[in-house]
User: Fold this.
Amino acid sequence: AHSKNGSYWFKAVLPEGLCVGLCKSTLGSLTSPHDDGMQLLHPDEYMWGQANFKSSNSRNSYYMGRAALRSSLESLIVDQLGCEPELQRLRSAVRSEPFNKDSFGRPILPVGVMGSISHKNDYAVGLSSMRPNVNVSDEVSWLADCPVLDTEDESSTADIAGNSNRQTRGIGIDLERINDDRGSRIQHKVLTEWELSHLGGLESIGISKAQEVMLRFSLKESAYKAMHPIICEYVSFKEAETTPFTDGMAKVELSLKSGLSQIAISASWRVVDEFFLTSAAASM
Assistant:
């Protein structure tokens, strides 16, 4: 379930974390650092957007994505996790530092936090969750630009392969328009032959085959974002097969060219206004 909340488009607790959606119509102007919507950003994020985007649309998408992720993380700390001193230190650290981009374009976050962003035109969503078994110490450190798992390290992969206690190591979120006319054009590019032959399973709840293409595409986007912190490499659309179910859950099966087989993906989806909102978690 999702709820409207003040300047938010929506706020929802998903299986993978806490999600906040923003839309430009409620944020207002994003042209000046003094605009109301800009108060959700760190000042350095505003300056970075001004320096790196010539297009106002691209700049606004960047601002809204950062604002949505910040709103999600703030809500996660305040609403979901309580007021322990360690979490207040995390909250202060999050407010005091910009969410810079790493070399892959991912937002750099504190070590104890997982997060993901998606945006479409005047809409943006941010998903956040605490990383399992990471204590927030007196000194809040920020995640380095490196994989969670070094796949070249045989001892590392062996340890995880023999560990039955899987941990979530990445989360992903994606937003796609339900009636995006790209569906029929991209289906052979983004879906496997098996997926193409199994379209139509959601027609009983009013989702057409063309719309289901966009849903499966979105699920793959979420899954790739979730697993990217683990492998830090390109994954093609044909390396995953998705099956969305009518109850809002989804199955994602991986067949990675890299041969890494220890990653498991859990995923879910829902309809928010005219969008599919999908989310995923990668565990090892």
